[in-house]
Amino acid sequence: MAVNLKKLVRKEDLLSGGHRACAGCTGANILRQVMLVAGRDTIVGGATGCMEVVTTVYPYTAWKVPYIHTAFENVAATISGVETGFRALKKFGDLPVEREKMNFIAIGGDGGTYDIGLQSLSGAMERGHNMVYICYDNEAYMNTGIQRSSATPFGAHTSTAPAGKVKQGKEQNRKNLTAIMVAHEIPYVAQTTPFHWRDLATKVEKALAVDGPAFLNVLMPCTIGWHFDPAIGMQICKEAVENNFWPLFEVENGKYKINYKPSEKKPKTQLADWMKQQGRFKHLFKPGNEELLVKCQEYVDQEWEKLLKLEVMTAEPESVKTV
Amino acid sequence: MAQNLVALAGNEAVAYAFKQARPHVGSAFPITPQTEMMHKFAEFVANGEVDTEMILVESEHSAMSAAIGSAAAGARTFTATSSAGFALMWEMVYVAASLRLPINMALVNRALSGNINIHCDHSDSMGGRDSGWIQVFCENAQESYDTALMNFRISEHMDVRLPAMTNYDGFIISHTEDALYLLDDDTAYDFIGPYQAKYALLDVENPITVGPLDLTDYYFEHKWSQMEAQKRVFPVAREVMSEFGELTGRSYDFFEEYRLDDADLVMVVLGSSAGTTKDVIDEYRDKGVKVGLLKLRLFRPFPVAEIVKVLAGRKAIAVLDRSASFGGFGGPVFTEIRSALYRQEQTPIHNWIYGLGGRDYDLKQVAEVIEKLQQIAAGEELQEVNLLGIRL
Amino acid sequence: MSLKKASELTEGGIITEAGNASEYKTGDWRTFVPEFVVENCIQCLFCWIYCPDSAIAVDLSGEKPEVTGIILEHCKGCGICAAECPPVKKGKAALVMVREAK
């Protein structure tokens, strides 16, 4: 189970170069890292969105495994069909190549997952298909030009909720999709980022190993939409975890486990410093908007407190005693 | 060939056909009047009469999406819907045809909202006429059963590889007990044959990418390939129908000609209305009026050459549409037939829109059309697009 | 590349050449290019794992995997590799972004 790079590098890179993702796209990197773990006997479905568009521009495909895209709102339903097809063909003895097990991975952005694809995702999780759903969460509709989604955090500037003279970006907090997925009581739900490659690889491994559906929410800083230097995408991931904006945690059969807890006395990064590096929050640092920054911090603190409580609440009784 | 005479509603008859195709996967979401078809099929599954894996989805959009996933995986796949369910599938209906996946679907025709109405008209299927699917309309339970069986063969043929809809009228066919002959399971399955995928996602040793971004440089060429596949339905359908005729004694064609040989006046209808129309035609024939019926079965692809051959030179033609094209020049069947006959002698072709939302199509209405056709044939200038059976 | 005719295409727009995007050169998108300073490389493989473009060349023939340089035909010059290269902190960068002479 122990993941290390010396071992990972010997796995096959199943996403080729030559895809059309922007320079510094952390999303394309997420795909690469996921596929290093998943391996060849994997069928991938993509929702319409950046990662689908940039990897499959006809007549080219960056995918070295079977891949299907059909539409924006339905990747979970599409992969439900593929996965059921596998079980049926196996039962009938009609599989084109004999396999005891195959991996089925559905991939969608936050628009395709939090918003338009939520119904299809919820249905697939409830039906219990053996699939891993991976959301690359870049917190807005990047493929269509940075419109706000229900994953966009409070205060962020987007093209449909811009910062202007009387409005200061998005006026609502983001939806807690990971919690919604936990409420489906599926065997495995987790959050991670591509900077944390060991965490990500371990979580993909666990998600693929469970019998039934699993969901991974992966933070995907977007150099264009968040407006930062393409070289620092991985650092943005690192700091998002350090300041509790995007905690690393997993929920196995209902039990929460936080994988990284920043030091309360001496946190490595502050939320405001992290936000300052991103153009989407620039207006929040103008005089008069101090209150909005406070609100951002309050939301992050509130969610973190909730998570800490959930970890305690769902822990085994013995381990609670030892806490 | 021994066949069993049974009494079944149309939905049950089609469920038998789907069972006999031994599909790997079926996806379904409830909507009236399609529901009983899936109930019957679910019973077959529950009783172990068929090994199909069912995906009981949370919407029709997902029903079609899952069907696409399953067919792309390499599985024989079916689904069914009606009306608003078909409308919710809309986007995916096009994708199924574009990806050339031979999914089979029962479309139990029901009026589209609003206002909400559960009864028959063809507004659901007519909206899908440009989606790239094969569309066949049926008159009764027997024809629905037979068509469902034949559609597997036609759609899965290697020259075709297109999805197919078996259209039958909601309630009028779907819920009405009718006498029909069923093939035994093995004979029906042998007629359809085992499923062969052309490309399969599950063939992980030959990985394919399905559904890429297709821009200005190739999209048009891929649409051409869909157009060509539609054309190849004609010879394939002929071959399948002729083989089916030999097997069962029931022969079918792109359309049925009823007392058409010497007819001066012709009515064109789709679906269950053909039965009522035939009865009134018989009455008028008894009175010496040379009237006949063209019952169109294959609507997509539209058999233009054959239709022109049969309709050219008639004195007056009435095309009946069980759906409206709001703001358009007549209903969709009328537009198509009239356009097909444009280069022919100036046969007057008139349109009657009827039966929307399940409004009864009765003997009086057929008689009204035939009376008008006689006046038109006699040279009277009458309104070209008309409404039938409505209080104005 | 000359475009194929309609009759030469796979039906449904299916692509049968898996991974053929590697034929598409994204290297000319670059303004900056990472220069590999082999003597500073500690072979941590961070550049390889973090690259979004599969553009870090690794020699797997020996007992230990060894980073050997950049696959220039795909490298878009984003600079993630250089930003994540640990020896940078000690002033001995193994990857240095430089403006590319065109």
Large-scale geometry of chain A: globular
Predict the CATH topology of chain A: Rossmann fold
Q: Please outline the major beta sheet of chain B.
A: 7 strands, mixed
| SSE arrangement of chain A, N to C | HHEHEHEHHEHEHEHHEEHHH
**What CATH first level of chain A would be assigned?**
Alpha Beta
Structural class of chain B comes to alpha/beta
Sheet/helix structural class of chain A: alpha/beta
CATH architecture of the largest domain in chain B: 3-Layer(aba) Sandwich
Please describe the biggest sheet of chain A, giving its number of strands, its sense, and whether it closes into a barrel: 8 strands, mixed
Written as H for each helix and E for each strand, in order along the chain, the element string of chain B is: EHEHEHEHEHEHEEHEHEEHEEHEHEHE
Mean pLDDT of chain B: 97
The separation of the N and C termini of chain B measures 53 Å
How many structural domains does the protein architecture of chain A include? 1
According to CATH, the homologous superfamily of chain A is Thiamin diphosphate (ThDP)-binding fold, Pyr/PP domains
Low-pLDDT stretches of chain A are none
| Uncertain residue ranges of chain B | none
Indicate the radius of gyration of chain A in whole angstroms: 20 Å
